[in-house]
Amino acid sequence: MTDAQETAADPALRTTGGAPPDDVETAPIPLLEPREGIPPVVETDDALARVIAAFAAGTGPVAVDAERASGYRYGQRAYLVQLRRAGAGTALIDPVGCPDLSGLGEALGDAEWILHAATQDLPCLREIGMTPTRLFDTELAGRLAGFPRVGLGAMVENVLGFALEKGHSAVDWSTRPLPEPWLRYAALDVELLVDLRDALEKELDRQGKLDWAHQEFDAIASAPPAPPRKDPWRRTSGMHKVRRRRQMAAVRELWNTRDSVAQRRDVSPGKVLSDTAIVEASLALPVNVHALTALPGFGHRMGRRQLEQWQAAVDRAKSLPDSELPQPGQPVSGPPPPRSWADKDPEAAARLSAARAAVSAQAERLNMPQENLITPDTVRRVCWEPPSDPTPDAVATALLHHGARPWQVHQVAPALSQALTP
């Protein structure tokens, strides 16, 4: 690190609960090159073996990041994995050439992984055999510490005083070979994660929130993989316009056809057919390909074979018996949408209003987002079916039952008890 880098990265100069002190120069220093230069991309088993040995011999926490090709490829697989550790330097690994990184995951043992927005990267890392036992999420740490902007660039700038170039965040990372500017960007993403982690740890400790953060990190690390979403076609953008069951069946048929095509071609579903086109075709239920062509999203650029496959999907929906048509809405586990509470249960609506106000006030006192203090879903569940005697202990038990962490229970149970008391 240069003298300027060390000065800017000194946590004592930058970390002040979400904003730099008034008497410190805040102009960020552009971070243009990795300390040891851009490392070669690891694409072979021999190169991977050398990286595994180096990182196993390294010390301290491991900075980890992954780049996906969202919007370009099907799914959320990783197309580049970046790591950095003291004693090992930075590594850039191509999961296309090295699809099994379980050996690297094992070599890291129980080392703490540092990730930014861990829940975004963990699924694609698990697919290639990398799962942490301990982690530190710098984005979540920033939220708990009260920083108003928690993107990696904003955090590095506000805490460490560096400006990261973020122009390549949304590029097609499945491109091969990867251009040098992209590799530089990728290496810089893990360049200061350890420094950022150390600074945020000190700030959380200063605010008395470090144990809270550890509870949150442990919850993320121990959470099982999310199950497949039921009826994912219901999340089609513009679905609120579709009212009739026959039209809903058309959305389902078109969505499933698009998904199969996208998976087979390994492209983003939106590049195969837009959500807007699916909704338009479902509302119109065209009688033939000619009528389909007149709809938005099915123009002259689309080949005859493509048009016929979309029309076939619509025709399948039109021919279904009523018994096989989807039902409106999704099966709901838990309370109904809050907008209906006033009609269904006015007392529950009053409880929810009071509870929301109590959570908002407590979050403001603690200088953190309400959803990090306690999830809105947990609040709704406790308000819909409160304990018969909503004492603080009873509310605490209910919160724990719904997955709240002990620190959250301690912070909100007394306030929620008051809100739930008639």
Automatic annotation (TrEMBL):
Sequence segments annotated as region (Disordered): 1-38, 220-242, 320-346
In alphabetical order, the GO MF annotations are: 3'-5' exonuclease activity; nucleic acid binding; nucleotide binding
List each copy of the HRDC domain by range.
244-324
What's an example Gene Ontology biological process for this entry? nucleobase-containing compound metabolic process
Pfam family of the protein (one): DNA_pol_A_exoN
Report the InterPro entries cross-referenced here: 3'-5'_exonuclease_dom, Exo_C, HRDC-like_sf, HRDC_dom, HRDC_dom_sf, RNase_D-like, RNaseH-like_sf, RNaseH_sf
By its UniProt entry, which PANTHER family does this protein fall under?
RIBONUCLEASE D
Specify the protein name. Answer: Ribonuclease D
Organism of this sequence: Streptomyces liangshanensis
Taxonomic path: Bacteria, Bacillati, Actinomycetota, Actinomycetes, Kitasatosporales
